[in-house]
Design a protein that fits this description.
170 residues, 1 helix, alpha+beta, 11-stranded antiparallel β-sheet, 46% strand
């Protein structure tokens, strides 16, 4: 009888530790999202003719409700957000032309924040393709496989599109 009680106590302790780790991970994700919002310039609502980002996340359609504005620098942060979930990555704009490709890697990963049990994903496999760049807009497509150091799971982001209006530099 004592071994059974000991086994049940051990299982209970292990389960509570796992729940605490998941709870800690969710709190960390929430803290990171709050910090990002607090330290980012105001997001701009998306529209079909203005700022835009959409993708399929593990087969489910996702469309950003707001995006970071153009910061008029050579390295642009392309980031869309909807209800605390976000997709973001950087593009170096010098020498851009339609057809230019950027591969995601360990040094140039996409960021994906979700409301699932993992929460924070890094897209190190995939690419961005520039489809348009002129004085009025930068547009492209993207796809990546997200992974996490906290999980063996992966997440597929496909059919991604983005547009940021550009304003001529003065």
């Amino acid at each position: 009888m004592k071994p059974l009680i000991f086994l049940l106590a051990a299982i209970s302790i292990l389960c509570s530790c796992q729940n605490k780790q998941q709870s800690d991970a969710k709190k960390l994700m929430s803290d990171i999202q709050s910090t990002m919002k607090a330290n980012s310039p105001g997001f701009i609502p998306t529209s079909k003719n203005g700022y835009w980002m959409s993708a399929n996340i593990d087969g489910k359609e996702w469309t950003a409700s707001a995006m970071l504005p153009d910061d008029k620098s050579d390295s642009k942060r392309i980031q869309g957000e909807k209800d605390g979930e976000s997709i973001g990555f950087y593009i170096w704009t010098r020498g851009l032309a339609p057809g230019k490709r950027f591969a995601f890697s360990d040094k140039r990963a996409a960021d994906l924040m979700t409301h699932d049990d993992v929460g924070i994903w890094g897209g190190r496999k995939g690419e961005i393709v520039i489809t348009r760049i002129d004085d009025s807009a930068l547009e492209g497509t993207f796809t990546f496989t997200g992974s996490s150091t906290n999980s063996n799971k992966t997440i597929q982001v496909t059919n991604g599109t983005f547009r940021i209006p550009l304003t001529p530099t003065q």
